[in-house]
Design goal:
The protein contains eleven helices and 14 strands. It is of the alpha+beta class. The protein has one domain. The C terminus is likely disordered. Bound molecules: protoporphyrin IX containing FE. The site of protoporphyrin IX containing FE (HEM) has 26 residues, from strand 7, helix 8, strand 12 and helix 9.
Length: 338
């Protein structure tokens, strides 16, 4: 069997992105499955019109929707987002059956693809969250710090974000997203030095603090984690600022891809519960998580051919698992693959 291709999880940072989260209407699962297989074609149609724009889209599938729509066993790392409540800070879990991470050099490309996706899923699903992210000066977030410096790159990024050939779903990924808003007024009342202590890096030059100078509650202290052998456990991030001056909203859309989703989950526990418990991430004193969701990112091959995720039943046995929850209760109407 040929090695499946991953979706374009690993790629260059882009100046524009749209993050779309959808819920699928009860009873419309089979139509949503069919629409998922059309996503690649839509990306080609929109992207080909301005190839220099480098349009890409990564599609994710939420845990509840997986159980409703697919007969194949749920991927080992897929489950509902684990909400966290450390007393001081909360990371809520919010709805999401499907997720689209749309990236391009130009917002018009992202917007056109979002519109085409909305049309393709019209009547089947509801957009429950839409964030338009922009790249800010020097790849900074709205707290004013360069965001993404320590991201793995190239082959290392592949290894961090994409599952290997011996896993239950090779060439796949898991993505966790959270929409944060910042209290910029309070943040800007801090001295630059106190802001730097909160992150663990210098602001202007983006240089990492020496270990002995990093406060225990600095963002990077809590997010640098190691396995039992002392190897760093990493994730691949592509955070984007977003906001509205009229609404006074200043935010960061956090997005983290990992082959092993427990890496991202451990980071979140350290940020929100603290390490030791109570020593929570200083940036959370100025940042509120409004959403939280986890999605499985199937390989490109599996996304394009729904039979790979939802193989036709090989048995007529009434005890065969998981009928597809189709509105007509007629199961798959597609032909048997060759
Ligand atoms: C590093 C900002 C949320 C994981 C950083 C850095 C900044 C930053 C400025 C330092 C530069 C860099 O290496 O990228 C933010 C903001 C967030 C946010 C504004 C949302 C309010 C998160 C979350 C996670 C996370 C939720 C994990 C679940 C990391 C990791 C690093 C990092 C792993 C790199 C640490 C290192 O290797 O030095 N973040 N971050 N961040 N952040 Fe975040």
């Amino acid at each position: 069997m040929s090695v499946p291709l991953p979706q374009p999880v690993v790629g260059p940072l882009t100046p524009a992105a749209i993050f779309l989260t959808l819920t699928v209407e009860p009873g419309r699962e089979s139509e949503a499955r069919e629409a998922l297989a059309e996503v690649s074609g839509l990306v080609r149609s929109v992207g080909f019109r301005a190839q220099e724009g480098g349009l890409t889209c990564v599609t994710g599938i939420g845990s509840d929707f997986w159980d409703r729509a697919f007969r194949a066993p749920r991927p080992s790392g897929l489950h509902p987002f684990i909400a966290l409540d450390g007393g001081t800070h909360r990371a809520p879990a919010t709805p999401g059956d499907l997720f689209f991470h749309i990236r391009a050099a130009r917002m018009d490309l992202c917007f056109e693809l979002a519109r085409q996706l909305d049309l393709a899923f019209s009547g089947i699903s509801r957009v429950v969250d839409e964030v338009h992210g922009f790249r800010y000066f020097d790849t900074r977030d709205l707290l004013g710090f360069v965001d993404g410096t320590e991201n793995p790159a190239g082959q290392l990024a592949e290894g961090v974000a994409i599952t290997g050939p011996d896993t239950d779903h090779p060439a796949s990924s898991y993505v966790i997203v959270q929409k944060y808003t910042h209290d910029l007024e309070a943040w800007e009342r801090l001295s630059v030095e106190d802001q730097e202590h909160a992150i663990g890096r210098t602001k202007l030059s983006d240089i990492e603090y020496p270990d002995e100078a990093k406060p225990a509650n600095a963002h990077i202290t809590l997010n640098v984690i190691e396995d039992e052998e002392g190897n760093e456990r990493q994730i691949l991030r592509d955070n984007m600022p977003f906001g509205s001056v009229a609404e006074g909203t200043f935010g960061t859309y956090f997005i983290g891809y990992a082959a092993d989703v427990t890496t991202t989950e451990t980071m979140l526990e350290r940020m929100f519960i603290g390490d030791p418990p109570g020593t929570t991430d200083r940036i959370l004193d100025f940042s509120t998580a409004l959403t939280g969701a986890l999605f499985f990112v199937p390989s490109q091959d599996a996304l394009d051919d729904p039979d790979l995720l939802d193989p036709p039943s090989t048995s007529d046995s009434p005890t065969s698992p998981g009928p597809r929850d189709d509105s007509l209760g007629v199961g798959g109407l597609r032909g048997t693959p060759q």
